[in-house]
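Quick question, first post here. What does this chain look like in 3D?
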Amino acid sequence: MNYRFRVVCLLLVILLGAGFAAAQGGVLTPGQGVQGSINAQSPLAFYTFSGAADDQVTLHAISLSAGFRPTITLLSPIQQNLTTSSSDPTSPESPDARLSYRLPQSGVYSVLVAGFNNSQGDFILRLFMRPAAESISLALDEAVSVSLSDETPARTFSFSASPDGPTTFSTAGTPPDFPFLVEIRSAAGQLVALFPGLAEAAFIIPSGSGQYTAIVSSAAAPGVTGEITVAITSAALAPDVPPPATTPEPQPDQPRGETDACTVAPAGGSAVNVRSGPGTNFGIIGTLQPGQPQAVIGRQGDWYAISTAQGTGWVAAGVVATAGKCDDLPDLAGPPIQATPTYTPTPTTAGGIQPPVQPTATPTLTPTATVIQPGQPTATPTLTPTAPLATATFTPTPPPFTSTPTQPPPTATFTPTTAAPTATFTPTPPPPTAPPDARFNSPLNIPLDSTASVTDFVSYPGGDTEDRVRWDITGMNPNASLSGGRARLILAVSCFGTGTQNIQFFTGGQTYSCGQTIFDSEVTYDSRTGSVVITAVAGENTYVQWVLTGTATRVN
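> Answer (accepted):
Ran it through. Tokens below.
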């Protein structure tokens, strides 16, 4: 109920405040929501937006369908995968997805929305963008105080992790009940910790050399002014223990990792799940991002325990890399496993009627029925409605001679029969196929000094197996010796779906595969155009969405 109420409130805010547009892909505008749907015919939704270097962007996909979990992927202007998220670290119990990132360069970025574990449903996607702001640099063991008001609702702080050990980022408000929101982000803009609506907060930063940004914003009512004090202190020292006079430096022949606290970070290039307990049967409460090590507070079996904004989290040892002294970690007990009720379905017949477990014999009595015994007088049964079985009572008719019947009175016998359940057949839906289209798809028109993309689907063996795209750089000067007369053109391709290894891109007499750069050369006005053929060549149930992205940069 709480989640549904939250979704309804969000929809009202979007519809009434920021405007609303329904589309399956398109251009994103900051603060404006777009609605999309993931299904068998459209397993991906493709969006773009323009951003500047160092802009802080947040993408939020809100699930509108039961059982649907969206996944968001952010691609760079040259279609490199920057980050992916299938959860919302600010609301782990919801099926939504949220990611934050600081843009590394100016250009046109791409956003892909898909269903986690092939789930399908409707969603709303919103883009929030915060331009790069001037930040206040924090030094170790120094406190900084700033005021938050309607004129200055947020302040940004920057600080570095200490290679000598963990540090603590702490904030407190004045007056003590002044509420504020704290977002701690990595150098790439990924959310590391979130403290909503608190009067004070503290977060431990693991040892290392990473750069962090903290955005502190007011959560008070309009017109209320407060003061925020922010500090970076050593996490290894208790408040009542004075620091040592000197800090010995490690010897050159002693590895730094032997003296550092134990930390974990994703072993690969993508985020890993953080769960509420040491096992895959526990729910996901967040993600651990690449390049952002977290201090380990304990271990149970093949799971490491770390501190998160939602409490103690657990990551699997097989998907993370460790650093520091991790051999003597304390054993921690995880939360109890919640019992999951087992549902036993009741068999039904084809008509949806449940067959009886123990059938009860119910005789059907026909009042006019008579039983004839050979050589005996006619017996007329007497019907007793309250008896479970009908019993015929024999009443003889006196013959001329005295006769004693030798046959017992007949008894009606009922044999119940149980209807056999009828098996129902649920047909398997056919695999998706790309719809046929024109010989040439939509052209890729790339404005000079900009980036543009075009996308479509191919499939194999059925459906549209081949697409053709013409590209053209617009805005070039016909005179190659003048400004804008020469440009560097980069064309890159990306693929998403089933059977991406079966897709080929042919241009300039060469064949390329998904994920490659198919063109990188200097062009002039006369050589600014070209074409590429996209073909699905093999595979069973191959169904792929390809994306062709071009970037044209002025040379002179």
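The longest strand covers residues 486-498.
Residues 277 and 334 are 5 Å apart (CA to CA).
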